[in-house]
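Need residues for this backbone.
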């Protein structure tokens, strides 16, 4: 299970550190009756925006996951150039946006890498035909890269900038 100090991914926050595993919250239900105390994990966001999250301990397994370990991060970086872009296509940009936002909401490192590769591919296609890259594609690329960089920074004990350089180097060597 999880313990204080563990780096985890919380789907709503990204990379977090578990600060407390035994926070008890006593509350009342909407009808004024007492609700039995509930145990929570207290998470501190590692992102620049900061903040804390309270995750019910009985839901922790489905809401948070450990950050990938160092060995997996190194292995995955070596395979980064082999990740194929997703072939999802929809002419409606709103539907496309929704699809890829749902992908990124999973906060899965490989999925985020695939979204980044997809957006890089689509931007390159647009530029090759003389078109300006879609703002949607640029925004999704930035969001996907940010998720990957944050997880790599946590896994390898690097700053976000160092993780970005590490990933660029790994991609250029492959």
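Answer:
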């Amino acid at each position: 299970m999880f313990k204080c100090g563990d780096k985890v991914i919380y789907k709503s926050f990204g990379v977090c550190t578990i600060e407390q595993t035994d926070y008890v919250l006593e509350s009342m239900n909407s009808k004024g009756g007492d609700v039995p105390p509930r145990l929570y994990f207290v998470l501190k966001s590692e992102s620049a925006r900061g903040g804390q999250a309270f995750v019910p301990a009985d839901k922790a397994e489905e809401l948070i996951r450990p950050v990938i370990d160092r060995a997996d991060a190194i292995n995955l970086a070596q395979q980064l150039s082999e990740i194929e872009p997703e072939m999802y296509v929809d002419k409606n940009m709103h539907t496309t946006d929704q699809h890829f936002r749902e992908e990124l909401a999973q906060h899965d490192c490989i999925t985020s890498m695939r979204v980044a590769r997809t957006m890089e591919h689509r931007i390159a296609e647009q530029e090759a035909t003389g078109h300006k890259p879609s703002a949607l594609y640029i925004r999704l690329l930035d969001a996907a890269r940010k998720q990957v960089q944050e997880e790599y920074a946590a896994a390898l004990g690097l700053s976000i900038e160092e993780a970005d350089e590490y990933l660029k180097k790994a991609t250029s060597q492959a």
